[in-house]
Specification:
The structure is a homodimer.
Chain A: E1 3-10, H1 12-15, H2 18-29, E2 34-39, H3 42-51, E3 58-59, E4 62-63, H4 67-91, E5 96-99, E6 107-111, E7 123-128, H5 130-138, E8 142-146, E9 148-150, E10 156-158, H6 161-172, E11 176-183, E12 202-203, H7 205-213, H8 221-233, E13 238-242, E14 254-256
Parallel strand pairs in A: 1-2, 1-11, 2-8, 5-8, 11-13, 12-14
Antiparallel strand pairs in A: 3-4, 6-7, 9-10, 13-14
Helix pairs in contact in A: 3-4, 6-8
Chain lengths: 259, 259
């Protein structure tokens, strides 16, 4: 029998709200199973960029990362956000370690090739160092991973946090029963976005496709959910999408199902 | 017999010079013994503070760290500088892990009491988690530690990197034969600061006191060297002060001696 592993990706809306941030981390620290937290921090990076006179550029929700942008992204993700998370988790007696994909070669990536768009210093994941994650788990350390990777040749790369969460979940599914939870600002998949009561408690691939056609699932939610179904096919046992309460309560969010 | 451990504190002048930065890290990666790197990054933090419209405040070389300053310090030390170091070390195949004193409770500190000066969010070290450092060493991981600590209650604190280096060196001396090297912009202790040939190859406490009286050792070098002599009394085996070549060559720098 495999051990359970809970992987949680926390969104920018929670990171950027002091009250939710603390509630979320207190709940996270109470998870008894082995756990991993994954975060980005685009809102906070964009705020600092604006203050530094560097205009944030996004195409379809993906950041164009030139050299100056990359520096602010590294500072925000691996510095400010990651260390603030760790300091709060330590307060709640969670033995946590802040990581980027650069540390111990955790996430090796390839700089995205220029096609129609030059995304700049953006990396597509090639390999996760799962041996290192397992070494930490054996030491009862909770990894808190920010969304940066590297090319192995001295270049840090900006990498989508959802994709990192999904790739780590898939790769660790060989050894663990993995539950992956995406914590967002919304309650999950709503069929009417103005009515929280329209929450779909479960969704399968067919239903998802219909909701995309009906323009109910749109924008950034499309690649997020698409990725989730791929991850499930590749062995991730459970995937949930919901708000910050998802850690404690799996009933008021959306559970993805194969059938 | 104890194993050797090399602890290197690298100064801002090297971190801030692209060419020296790479030479330094390449040499560091070639050290065969167990090793730890410790850094701050005051110059880079001050640059970002100026760009963000936060005036840097320093008294006797020590930074007054208000809330906004602390955020920039965290971003610069644990984010930009730490991760850039790691990405270069990974290139040189050094299995390195970037840490702050917050991670796994590595450095617990107490916020400095307000006496004549309110230093703000500045921490005086209470305890180093040497167990965690040893766990990493057993995994052949090279820790790269930036100069932040925490109070265990959710507050990150700015802490002097020289002091961290010296405290870690002392605490690990119980289990290792520790050599501590301070890499600065200067070649070591010079009796005539305009003449590199006046380098003192060794210095004992008496000679140090005389040079302070003669105003030859001044400013920030006084607490640095004072701390070194204390560290030697507490068990650190060798201490060297010199430029970036100190890693490869222990002859062209200043070695502190007990007698």
């Amino acid at each position: 029998m495999k051990n359970n592993l809970i992987i949680i990706k926390v969104g920018g809306g929670i990171l950027n709200d002091n009250r939710l941030f603390k509630i979320f981390l207190e709940n996270f620290s109470k998870i008894k199973e082995t756990k991993i937290l994954i975060h980005g921090g685009g809102i906070i990076a964009s705020n600092y960029m604006t203050r530094l006179g560097i205009p944030p550029k996004l195409i379809n929700g993906r950041r164009i990362t030139d050299e100056k942008t990359l520096d602010v992204v590294i500072m925000s993700y691996a510095g400010l956000i990651n260390k603030k998370i760790i300091s709060v988790l330590q307060k709640f007696k969670c033995k946590s370690l802040g990581l980027s994909g650069v540390d111990c070669n955790l996430i090796r990536a390839k700089r995205r090739e220029v096609k129609e768009i030059d995304f700049g210093f953006v990396g597509d994941i090639q390999e996760i160092n799962t041996d290192f994650i397992e070494e930490l788990i054996k030491l009862n350390i909770t990894p808190v991973i920010c969304s940066l990777s590297h090319d192995g040749n001295g270049q840090i790369l900006n990498t989508n946090a959802d994709t990192i969460a999904s790739k780590i979940a898939v790769d660790l599914s060989k050894k663990y029963d993995v539950t992956l939870k995406y914590c967002l600002e919304t309650d999950g998949v709503l069929t009417d976005k103005y009515n929280p009561k329209s929450l779909k408690k479960t969704i399968n691939f067919k239903e998802y496709k219909v909701l995309v056609k009906q323009n109910i699932i749109t924008d950034g939610m499309i690649p997020k959910i698409e990725n989730c179904f791929i991850a499930m096919k590749k062995g991730v046992k459970n995937i949930f999408i919901g708000n910050h309460n998802i850690i404690k309560n799996e009933n008021d969010c959306t559970k993805l199902t194969i059938e």
